[in-house]
Amino acid sequence: MKALRMIIVCMLLVLLYGPGLSHAHEMGTAALHLTEFSTGSGQLSFKKTRGVSGDIAPISFELLPACKLSNVHTSWEGKTEVQQVAEFHCDQPLDRHSVLVDGFTRLAPDLIVSAHFLDGTERVQIASSTHTLLKLKSDTTQSNVDTDYLGIGIEHILGGMDHVLFVTGLFLLWRQHQESLKALIGRFTVFTLAHSVTLALLVLGWITVPARAIEALIALSVLWVAFELLEDGEGNRPFSTNWVVAAFGLLHGSGFALSMADRGFPKDSLLSTLLLFNIGIEMGQLLIVADLYVAFLAADRWLVFKARYAIQWLLTVLMGGSALYWTIERVMVYV
Q: Which Pfam family would be a valid example here (predicted)?
């Protein structure tokens, strides 16, 4: 109980002084959808992220040759994303145009561009700082586009602090229980398989979930891990069972899928891009665990016990305070 009272005080301090540091999604993926309804004319939707500081990602695009825009409307989705919808009018068919993109930052490291042409065909491409000009009817092979989804998967887990802290919490629980390396691999295998299932089911459209509720439950899962870390760590805690880890994996898989819901995957290579996106997530997850393993291995060798304990305690405070902030923020949507 003493530890619980101490962590509650620390959580309150984080809530009071660090809400900006407690934001879950500082990295986003921008998306541009172009739909041609008549020759050279149609509607576009441009979505981008707003950061913790309130700044909107400066990413921008231009159709070449230039097209006229009309009926431009801007709307907000919660506090994190802004969407611009407009009608475009071009002198030539859409497939004769290119898209020039500029302003890539951490808030928008890439731009997924999907073009739906009048003849019913679709082209999905990804612009980045090294590939700023996209021909809408490009000769670029789809396999090159598919590979880009690997990087997007890595960006998604490394840029979502709720997911990063959850993975960190699983690692810290493993250390606290002094389990074997086999147990660590098994725990993350279960988590990976579980979130891969919901990611695939949601992307394929076979199930639907309430987005706001999933976001709140993901935050609650991080808070739960922080609470477990406050216990004495001896014996088999309820959270350490694979069934519970699998349940939280299903939640996080839903979060990955929802973050890509409006960005999309190319329909003509859905399975391959979905697989690469998921592999990217696993690579990001492996990178987090490897970094933690090396860091704590060095700490075990060079630091005294009290210093190692302080590091884990501070990480737990960060997890608990941030998760409590996210949980309250996301539950307040329903109030």
A: HupE_UreJ_2
CA separation, residue 59 to residues 41, 48, 50, 286, 329 (Å):
23, 8, 11, 30, 27
Under the banding of pLDDT at 50, 70 and 90, the label for residue 78 is low
Contact between residue 88 and residue 44 where contact means Cβ atoms under 8 Å apart: yes
pLDDT (tens digit per residue) in 65-76:
999 999 999 988
Geometric angle at alpha carbon 334, from 333 and 335, rounded to 5°: 95
Report the DSSP pairing between strands 30-38 and 41-49: antiparallel
Q: Which helix (H) or strand (E) element contains residue 156?
A: helix 142-159
Tell me the C-alpha to C-alpha distance, in Å, between residue 73 and each of 35, 59, 70, 315.
16, 18, 9, 43
Find where tokens 């391959």 sit: 272
Residues 6 or more apart in contact with residue 174 via CB below 8 angstroms = 183, 184, 187
* Inter-axis angle of helices 305-331 and 211-230, nearest 10: 150
DSSP string, 202-226: HHTTS----HHHHHHHHHHHHHHHH
Q: For residue 233, which amino acid is it?
A: G
Can you list the positions of beta strands (E) in the chain?
30-38, 41-49, 60-64, 68-77, 81-89, 98-102, 110-116, 122-128, 133-135
Query: β-strands 98-102, 133-135: how paired?
Result: antiparallel
Nearest partner of 31 among 66, 106, 81, judged by Cα: 81
pLDDT of residue 234: 47
Give the full edge-to-edge strand order of the sheet including 110-116.
Answer: 68-77, 81-89, 41-49, 30-38, 110-116, 122-128
Residue found under tokens 């939707």:
45
Number of H helices, E strands in the chain: 8, 9
Among 30, 89, 31, smallest CA distance to 63 is for 89
